Fold each of these.
Amino acid sequence: KRVSLHLFVSVLAGSTGLLHCPHNPGDTLLMMTWWIRPLYKPPCFITILDSRSVNNCSERTMHENLSLKILKTHITDTGNYSCEVVNAHGTFHSSFMLQVLVPPSVSLTLNPAGFPECRTVGGISPSEISWIPESDDVITRREMSPDKTWTVISTYRVQIIPGREVTCNVSHPTFTHPQILTIVIPGKTLKILSFGERKKSQQGQ
């Protein structure tokens, strides 16, 4: 048996996941099996023998030539997948780790103590948060919910001066560009600017 490298694949929730088995036996295929072991639901398999196939997976999961297609991916599709190809030359095996990503919601507020707090909720995987100006006095907490999504809370604990701007920069695998929010504190009034609003404000000065 020859075992290939373990491959890592990420897809966005709701999109179609496609795993390509790298072994192509051509016309010599005797049997092929996809073994599916999700992290959050029971395992299943799809076997192709001659022109027949056996599939005890969900209707969203199907084989297409030597590939596996998963329609409208869910969080629960995250897990380990492997393809096994048998032909006259032997058995060939490849494995995949499929991660289904979900974008988080992002917010920026002042917490009860008066410190800026950047929060991302409902993401898979956890987001990364940084601040401008940079500071060593930042506390970041990560919590996984029962539905396997992440909440990330980052608190900027530097003393805030009225009129000062503090910017929260959020990165996540589902974001094409980092999301940027800025707090402006003129006296006791709190205002939150998006990156686009902030740029317009600067151009008008």
Note: The radius of gyration is 24 Å.
Amino acid sequence: MPPIGNEYAAEQLKNQGNRHFKDGEYEQAESLYGLAIQKNSANPLLFTNRANARLKLEKWEPVIDDCLRSIELLKENMKGFFYLAQAQLAINHPNEALSSALMAYELCTQSASQTSNAATISALVLKCKKAKWDIRERERLRRRADLLCEMEAILETQWKKDQEDVEARIETGEIGRVEGQEEKASRRSEWEKKQSDLRTAFFLSDPQNLEKREVPDFLVDGITFEIMHDPVVTRNGRSYERATLIEHLKRSPTDPLTREPLSIQDLRPNIALKDACTEFMEKNEGWIYEW
């Protein structure tokens, strides 16, 4: 433990940093939080304060360092995981970001004092999950494009070989120049038709999978972050998957995000949303379970 005088000095420096942060002076805030950490490096909140200032400055790696240090000092560290997820997402590490965001969400919903942050953290979880999905989508589309390129290359290689064979026959006198040119033109026409047929077959064989696959936010449950099958709506107008929400209410008779009193009797079927979910699932059944 640091001496009492150092703790007091660290608190004063933190308060000064808070004032600068509130005024949008993030560099000054970062510096003052750093000085506070020098006085009391055992306080995890000082590291999350500096991480937040560094988030505003887009210093992603230092944010991650601060968050990890803060989490080492305090395991149940909602802000630490929340800021960590944002920085990890910014440097294009969606898998790690999703894990951190889910941890922040879990800690948030377990604490009655943190419920005001629940909607914000829920939105971040969904953003991380979509970023993770987008990377998979780009890779899938890239592979499909590569496959088409490979097949076209095979056709082109064969066409060039045919051209060389015709030219060799011309050189040996097996066929005349005019006849050879006509045969070359015919082979070229065949190659172009095969190429066109290949592209048509390729793109028509699976048109849905050649488009970017996305899940609308309103179809996603705010507790599990999976697509809903049987949504119900609460008194405040927010919808959840029925089974998931009932399981939550058995443990805690409160709204997962607002912490307002909520019972199973308060739930009502969201028929329009259920129809939208069903339609989306049926239309995209070929890939939706990968999401």
Note: The mean pLDDT is 87.
Amino acid sequence: METETFETTGDGLADATGLAMHDPDTASGLPQLDFSHFGNQIFWLVVTLVVIYLILSRVALPRIGAILAERQGTITNDIAVAEDLKAQALKAEEAYEKALADARAQAQAIVAETRAEIQAELDAALKEADAEIAARTAESESAIADIRAGAIEAVQTVATDTAEALVAAMGSKPDGAAIKAAVENRMKG
């Protein structure tokens, strides 16, 4: 069987792996705050900052700049397209307003034309109705004149008959010609 050998450090402490362990009594504290290591730490700090600067300036910042430039170009193009579309919309609105005004004018012309046609038809119908009313009025006046003449003749006949009957009732002999002349004079006024 093999025996394990332990190496010891100056203070005599060793672990099972053979690595020296630090004695808490002899440790100087945090190594990054040890002034003897400042030169080495400053060197690596400068190297790290230079490497980060080179990576950022050569790789990351150009990509970010390209993205920002592309975004700015897209925004500028979008604004230009929006202005163009706005101008087209204004032209379309003007064309719409003009077409609407033309349509209104045309509608008013159609309304005026239709109104004139309706008025002409109405005037013709009124003339026809007036002519028909005048014809019926003439017929009615003729019929009324015939009825009046018949009524007057009937009144004269009745008046003559009544007068002859009254004269006969009074005991005299009626004279037909005298009674007829008297009724006609009375009818005249």
Note: Residues 37-188 form one domain.
Amino acid sequence: MKPTAFHPVARLLHWSMAFLILAMLLIGVSMVTDLSVRHPVLVSLHKITGLALLVLIVARIIVRLSIPHPPLPQDLPAFQRLAAGASHLLLYGLMLAMPLLGWAMLSAGGYPRPFGLPAIVPHDLQLYAVLRQAHGWGGYLLFATVLVHVGAALMHAWVRRDGVLRSMWPGSKAD
């Protein structure tokens, strides 16, 4: 029998990551627009939060693959099922790729990494430039994907009223 709500661990990971991703997007925008003395603080905060998100997304993928989750509503049109699956794959891919791109970018640029993490690519300034641009564009794509995700959740809550948002909402009762 399929559950009607996500497991509490899945919900905790979801909402923790939602908060941290929103914070990261705001920090990232602030970093590239702020040339003041606060900039190093923002960079350090961005690095540490990115590392935390990397750990959380790995845990989230493990939970997603190992704990049953509620099915989509039976009456959801096929194209919306396909869109939901594709958007979740994109979202998970970006949540995994963004911290890895950041880590690779720091490695290629020869910058210090949090907690003395090893370099994952060689020091190469041309590679750094490519990774920095990829990290920036990835941030925009992640932001757009999050907006679509939130829009879909609100559509399920306010238009379809089918319990999809409620199944991930904190305090939902899992079966």
Note: Residues 61 and 172 are 21 Å apart (CA to CA).
